Amino acid sequence: xxxxxxxxxxxxxxxxxxxxxxxxxxxxxxxxxxxxxxxxxxxxxxxxxxxxxxxxxxxxxxxxxxxxxxxxxxxxxxxxxxxxxxxxxxxxxxxxxxxxxxxxxxxxxxxxxxxxxxxxxxxxxxxxxxxxxxxxxxxxxxxxxxxxxxxxxxxxxxxxxxxxxxxxxxxxxxxxxxxxxxxxxxxxxxx
Length: 191
Known about the structure:
By secondary structure, the chain is of the alpha+beta class. It has eight helices and eight strands.
């Protein structure tokens, strides 16, 4: 069990009377720390991450990010409630649960005469009837992160089981903006 302190610390209970602290608070690291407690080996790279990087789609650029246990449901709920379009999306609890279950993001970029980007998001649970709301939430997140609205609007979206994929052509400005977002993501506090 892990508890987030308002002082930017995760307290992790390994056993009765044995508590560890992780500062600065990082939800993903706290979860991995707790899961690896008692193991004598260093945690390995998740198979899904290796598979995402090994996918042979001939992209010149591939970025895969392990997001399992990274997104905080309370922060997602606050973001949804503060976004009028998402707040009206229906079952907020179901949407929060799905979005908090985001476990992997894979971005691939193909460059030849044109530039084409594909963003694949893998979730813990099937998207089912909530798929349109997940699409809307991801589009809103991309817009909030600085993606150009015309790029998000022109994206072809596919939903299959646990996965949603956005595919879109980019111009050079869009590609630069995309790479600037990737660079900034490592510096920002996660949701």
